[in-house]
Amino acid sequence: MTMKSTRMGGALAALTVAAGLAGPAAAQDDTFKIGVITFLSGQAAESFGVPAWNGGKLLVEMLNEGGKMPAPYDTKGFGGLNIEVVVVDEAGGATKQVQEFRNLVQREEVDAVVGYVSSGDCLAIPPVADELKAFTILYDCGTPRVFEDGSFEYVFRTAAHATMDNVSLARYLKSRNFDVPSFAGLNQDYAWGQDSWADFTGSMAQLFPDAEVKTALFPKFGAGQYGTEISALLRERAAVVHSSNWGGDLQGFLIQATARGLHERSQLALAAGDHVIPQLQDKMPDGVILGARGVNGLAAKARGGELQELTDTLWDAYEAEYGVFPVQAPFRMWQALLGLKTAVEKAMADNGGTKPTDEQLAAAMKGLEWDAPSGHIEMALADGHQAIQPNAIGTTKWNAEEGRMELVDVEYFDARCVNPPEGMKAQEWLAQGFPGAKCD
Known about the structure:
Elements: H1 10-18, E1 31-38, H2 43-65, E2 82-89, H3 94-107, E3 112-115, H4 119-132, E4 136-138, H5 145-148, E5 155-157, H6 163-175, E6 182-186, H7 191-207, E7 212-217, H8 227-236, E8 240-243, H9 247-259, H10 262-265, E9 267-270, H11 277-280, E10 289-291, H12 298-301, H13 308-322, H14 328-351, H15 358-365, E11 369-372, E12 375-381, E13 386-388, E14 391-399, E15 404-413, H16 415-418, H17 426-431
Helix pairs in contact: 2-13, 2-14, 3-4, 6-7, 14-15
Signal peptide: 1-27
Protein name: ABC transporter substrate-binding protein
Family: Belongs to the leucine-binding protein family.
């Protein structure tokens, strides 16, 4: 199934695409076939999966047409190869996703797999990818454990892992001279929320060593109602309240907390909260500090500089197509696909212009660098398999005159300021006081 035949919005279209998996098998020599896996249904679809896929299909159409992107991405397809995409819904858990991955590689005979929002899926897939010798890009998931606990030949993550979310938050509070005598947290009760809180407390211990750690609340994933937790936070009166909640959980928490004035008593700091702005609009309170795991969304639009043409080209196309501005998920899909294009064309330059094998792609991607709307991406960790990238943190402010949310007081952090160096695990880096960090 080609991209043009699936040009429809929302989860219904995505499910239709997924149903097309029984179509033609192996891609031709003039076609590069990608399996894309992301959430098209379930709680992660609205905030991450569908926006990512919408951004991905838009970019693929622009690349296939040729001449729609700024250089060096203005050439057609991947080195002249037409890009074909097979899309799979990530819902269903790790066991199901392992089977879907095998189907993509063995039945669909894709040339590369790009996928995974869930950290559980990102931990389950790499051993299978190496077993099958199938070139795979992890485009979104945040857990550092993928490459801290394992080593893989055919697997690459083109986005930074999540540790930089919370290092950046703490550095932002410090650089802006916030008074933080105490802080508390509300995070979802599973690995993502627990790891985010550990990263934030570890960072704060270095930058605000005298701050008192108050209550750490872990409501269940999908709780929806946070009355008891908000009451506890109001009683605590912590100077800062940290949350890595996402999707519907973050929307619910913000609406309920704002109604009770929590944002007026405590500074809200959201690890990667930009993705709920399109849904909340003016219901997102002013003065919330938030990031987007990368220079993504509103922070990228406000950045300026040499990457602005690239950012504006994709931003304007996305906004025109879907009637909403792009947040972090499409930005991460864009940087994965542009990295894949760079790797394919590098491999083709080295092999005489033929479509690269999985081994040639892996060799080309290892240690690769390229530019994306998110900034300059470097495969600098895990022996060239894990990306680092710059990050941005800003503060929300509603522009009533124009009817839109803005980020103000945005601070941009160099990749080597907020990511651990090669050979050091994230928690060790935090505990030792960020050795090797390079900050202006």
